[in-house]
Amino acid sequence: MSLPCCEWDDLLACSVPGEPVARTAHPAAPYDFGVAYPDPDSLPLDELVECLREELAVAGRSLAHYPHPLGYPPLREWLAARLAETRGFTVDADGILLGSGSSEPNFLVAQALVDPGDVVLVEDFTYAGTLGILRRFGADIRGVESDEEGMLPDSLEYRLREAEDEGKRVKAVYTVPTFQNPLGWVASAARRAAVSEITARGGVPVWEDDCYVDLAFDGQEVPAAIRSFDDSGRTIYVASFSKNIGPGMRLGYVAAAAPLMERMAAVKGTGGVSQFTAMAVHRFAQTGLDAHIDRVRGLLRAKRDAILAALDAHLGGRARWTDPSGGLFVFVQMLDGSDAVDAAERAAAGGVLFAPGPRTAADGVSGRDRMRLCFGWNRPDEMDAGIAALAAALQPAAAAVLGR
Ligand SMILES: Cc1ncc(COP(=O)(O)O)c(C=O)c1O
C-alpha cells in the first residue's frame, strides 16, 4: 500500500517560479532556427577526449576533492592571459569565477545585484535568457535603442536620466556588444568607450556579455572589450565556451570586481564547476581551440551565406534582414504585415522553429513583425527548404496585401 503524498502546493517556496522548463529533444524540428546551437558536426570530439586523457594524467588526482570554489585554477589562469591578449584588459585568475555556461554567471550577477523594482537597462532587443533571469528577480527592464554601431549614447543617457528623475536605482546596463543577440551588430570602439564613459558618471555597472566574441567570420578585428575602457572595476565581463565549443560543455565565466565576486561566490556555493569538464577545456584551450575556432568560422560563413540567399529567394520584397559578419543570428523584419507570433505555430507544424520578436524584446511585446533566425544548426544545403517552409507559414495581413 502506498502512503499519501504531501501537499506540494502548500510547501513550495513562493520565491521560485512555477513555469515548466522546456525539455526539447534535438533536433526539435527539421529546420531549427530557434536556438543558438553550434553545428553538431563541428564538435572536436576526438580532440576533447585526448585532451581529457592528457590532463587527467597530470591532474586527475584532484578529482578526489571538491574543486576550488572559483573553478579549476589552471583554466582561470589561462583565461586571465587570454583576456589580456585578446580583450584588452587585465584580471587576476582569482577575479574570474567559472560557472555552468554563462547562464549561471548571468544568474549570479542578477542575484547579487537586483532587488525587485531595480532598473536594468538592456538593448531594446536582446538575449531572451537574460531577460528571463531579470524578470525572475523583479527587475524593471528598460530598452535602449541601438544602430549598426551599438547602443545609442543619447538613448542610454535618456534612460539613465529618466530613472534618476523617477528616483529609481539603475543597477546595471546589460549589453551584448559583439555580434549582438539578436541584432548581429558589433559595437564600435567609440560606442564602447561612450557606454563606459556615460555609465561612469553615475557609477552604474556595465554588464558585458561577450559570448559570441570568437565567431567573427568575415575576417574582421573585434574591438577591445568595454571593460578595457574602465579602470574603476564597474564592468562585469561574462563569456562562455558554449559558442566556441558547445553548450553541452556547460562552462562559462564571469570576471568582476572583488566585492561582487565575493557575493557571487557566496551565492553560488555549490562546490565549484565540474573539474572534469574544466580539465578537458583547459588542455584543449592550449592545443586545439584556436584552430577549431577557425574551422567553425568557415562553417558559419557558409551557413550565413546560405540563409541570406534563401531569404532573398523566398522572402525578397516581403521583408528586410540583417547581414551579420559573425555570431549566429539573422534578424528579419516583415514588411507585408505578417505576424511572427501567429506564424510561429504554423511554422512549427511545418517543421520550422524560430524566435518571434517579442521573445527578444526588452518590453516582452514589441516586434511582432520580427523574427530571430539562428543559422548555427542546419547545414547550408538545408537552408533553402527551411526558409521556403518559413515563408509559407508567414501570412501577410489582409490589409497589407490590399495595400491599405
Ligand atoms: C548573449 C547570450 N548570453 C548567454 C547565453 C547563455 O549561453 P551559455 O549558458 O550556454 O553560455 C546565450 C545563449 O544563447 C546568449 O546568446
Describe this protein's structure.
The chain has 404 residues and is an alpha/beta fold. The chain has two domains: 25-43 and 291-401, Aspartate Aminotransferase, domain 1 (Alpha-Beta Complex); 46-287, Aspartate Aminotransferase, domain 2 (3-Layer(aba) Sandwich), CATH 3.40.640.10. It is 39% helix and 14% strand. It has helices at residues 8-11, 45-59, 73-86, 103-113, 128-136, 153-165, 189-201, 258-268, 275-287, 289-315, 340-349, 380-393, 398-401; strands spanning 31-32, 96-99, 119-123, 140-144, 146-147, 150-151, 170-175, 206-209, 235-240, 252-255, 319-321, 329-334, 352-353, 355-356, 370-374. The strands form four sheets. Strands 2-10-9-8-7-3-4 form a seven-stranded mixed sheet, with helices on both faces. It has a four-stranded antiparallel sheet with strand order 11-12-15-14. The chain has a two-stranded parallel ribbon with strand order 1-13. Helix 7 (189-201) links the parallel strand 7 (170-175) and strand 8 (206-209). The longest helix has 27 residues, at 289-315. The protein starts with 7 loop residues before the first helix and ends with a helix. Residues 399-404 have low confidence and may be disordered. Pyridoxal-5'-phosphate is lined by residues 36, 101-103, 106, 127, 129, 176, 181, 209, 211, 240, 242, 247, 252.
| N→C terminal distance | 69 Å
Q: What class do helices, strands and sheet pairing give?
A: alpha/beta
Number of separate domains: 2
Largest sheet geometry: 7 strands, mixed
* Annotated CATH homologous superfamily of the largest domain: Type I PLP-dependent aspartate aminotransferase-like (Major domain)
Mean pLDDT: 93
Radius of gyration: 22 Å
Bound molecules: pyridoxal-5'-phosphate
Please estimate the helix content: 25-40%
